[in-house]
Amino acid sequence: MAITVPSFAKINLGLRIGALRPDGFHELRTVYQTIALHDIISVSVGRGSGIEIRCNDSRVPTDESNTCYRIVERAMVELKATGRVVIEIEKRLPVQGGLGGASGNAVATLLALERASKKEMSAPARLRIAAEVGSDLPLFLVGGTILGAGRGEEVYPVPDLPAIPCVVATPEIGVSTPKAFADWDLLVSRGPQVTDKLTRPVASDRMSEFGRVLSAWLSSQSQSKYKPGRALSGVPVSKGRGRAETPLLDLVRTGIENDFEQVVFPKCPELREVKRVLVSAGAVYASLSGSGSATYGLFASREAAVKAAARLRKDGIPATATTTLTRPQYWKKIFD
């Protein structure tokens, strides 16, 4: 019998790019947030051997390069399971859009495989295997609001932001993540840290600064009880913005931003325009997700989000009104 589970997407609430590491990856700091948009994954285990992937989108690889294939290879060994695994992927999320679609697919496949094979591995083993397959995978084993460190594979659950209306715009613009990283390195190489030894540790300083900002935000969340109409900083919240929104507003006030915007927007001004439209439509925060091209806005109300999505679609930009998912909501939807 096939086991079917949803494969949810993520957005990045701020993303700081650090120095290039010896392993070829960049050091990162980000806050991941799961959202309700999703693909559908079905997994069955039958007689025989091997792994077969079927997908309704021809752009998705169905060979061993697919993250679902690679995670099943490792999981079957860990579970000491045998049989032929068939994975069916119903794509609803954009391919390579910055929403973690392929990574979420792999984790959903892993969870479905355990149920289909009636075997279960330990939580640390799941996280280890996920990190071996890709940097974005472990976040989908946590869900909700998550601090990402290392190359993104180090994940730490933080107090959930309340569920927030969200608009995700998915312009049909290809953004290569490796090229975006290369452009970032080129941008940084032109800065003073190359010629001035006294300012060379800029990358590590920026990472530390991001960490301090998040630590201060997390500390303030745990120490205070939010009151309607007032945020932690003591700045009054505008009319129509209530209790659920104040934690987000405090995070936004820290000045978090996505470094990729500095190199992606100049080459893809259409994405900068999408962000501008989201803000002008009332988004309390808007940003590129990952390296893009998906761009999102967080809104105070479902009504405002629906209107913003309609405005973008009227301009020919695919856009969907959805919501963020807290950790309990994320897991309830997966297991339902």
Assembly state here? Answer: single chain
Euclidean distance between termini CA atoms: 17 Å
CATH architecture descriptor of the largest domain? 2-Layer Sandwich
Rg, please? 20 Å
What would you say this structure looks like, in words?
Helix content is 37%, strand content 23%. It folds into two domains: 3-159, Ribosomal Protein S5, domain 2, CATH 3.30.230; 165-328, Alpha-Beta Plaits (2-Layer Sandwich), CATH 3.30.70.890. The protein starts with a strand and ends with a helix. Helix 1 (67-79) runs parallel beside helix 2 and helix 7 packs across helix 8 (269-280). The strands form two sheets. Strands 1, 2, 3, 4, 5 and 6 form a six-stranded mixed beta sheet that branches. It has helices at 67-79, 101-117, 123-133, 177-189, 202-223, 246-253, 261-267, 269-280, 302-314, 327-335, and strands at 3-20, 26-46, 51-55, 84-90, 145-149, 154-157, 165-169, 285-288, 295-298, 319-323. It is built from ten helices and ten strands. By secondary structure, it is an alpha+beta fold.
Sum up the structure in keywords.
336 residues, alpha+beta, Ribosomal Protein S5, domain 2, Alpha-Beta Plaits, 2 domains, four-stranded antiparallel β-sheet, 10 helices, globular
